[in-house]
Amino acid sequence: MREQSLRYAGLAYLARERKLLANCRSIFLAASLSVLATGCNKSPETTDGSGTISNDAEPQMKPSSDPLILRAREAFKPIPIKAPELPGNPATVDKISLGAMLYFDPRISATHSISCASCHNVGLGGADNSPTSVGFHGTRGGRNSPTVFNSVFNFAQFWDGRAKDLEEQAGGPMVNPVEMASPKQHIAAQLTALPQYRTAFARAFPGDANPVSLVNTQKAIAVFEATLITPNAPFDRFLRGDTAAFDANQKAGLALFIDKGCSACHSGVNLGGTMYAKFGVVSPPDAKYRPVSDKGRSAITGNTSDDYFYKVPTLRNIALTAPYFHTGSEQDLAKVVNIMAKTQLGQSLTQAETAQIVAFLNGLTGDQPKIVHPLLPASDATSPPPDQ
User: Fold this and answer.
1) What does the pLDDT read at residue 56?
2) Residues designated as active site
3) What pTM was estimated for this model as a whole?
């Protein structure tokens, strides 16, 4: 990796021209808040005159006559190497850099103690490995924190789908009284008080008369989160035609996953995140896993027919994101597989079948984003204090 040119304007930024390492994928956020997005076997990224990021084509799907690969391609797609664009919110180096700072900055919470990364830890599969996350003054949230990794591929955000996209999702926790608990005016006031943030927002949103705002905060965080994808899992390589990417157990597990009907809900790029489904289609799960008080999607729609419907979660990187279910109430992935087989499909799996499906699920772990925590603007005597 060649040394990056830096420019100083109260905050160091990575120059527009960037080079990628071969055979790895990382997003490097240097202490100066540089951002370097890299991809496996990917040609160098460039930027156009506006600073918008562009890069070359994705790896090709190899022609294959393998029956299992052909079946899998009907239901699933590999995660792309390039992060997708967000409609109406183009990614630029400056905007990604700003979004990374905001993602890791706890001062957007009322107590200055909780950041996006607190519940969506980039070192823990994009989640926090806790049944429910700690929020304002130690209050626990009502549901397990979903992984932020590959969330850009979900058709809606949160377990109940109450946010239509990443931008809307980014704003929810900041003002939620159980999570970050920040009044809307606090966020803009806090960021405006820091000269380095004023500079960063101006660069990320050129031409905006008032760039430091909650709306632009959400846009920047969303653009950064969209880069947190995990391509090149063994399953992705298998889909692209590499028959050696999966061992015999994983291939058997994939076949079972399709034959038993799991792929009816867990399909697409994310093996989930494309629909809502009732938890307990055939039979209701134990109240430990589906408490009566949490009605899921119906709390948003007001329709009782949506009781206990939730967004089907992604299975990408599932080996890294225990505990499971919206309640975070089960740590054992094999047990989760058996519970889902019974409650959703009305089937009982043998021990061997369960082990094979788990082996397949372990093959869904992709290249994890590599993050260096950014250096954040310093507070001073004029900065708004945290709530006590």
Assistant:
1) 54
2) 179
3) 0.86
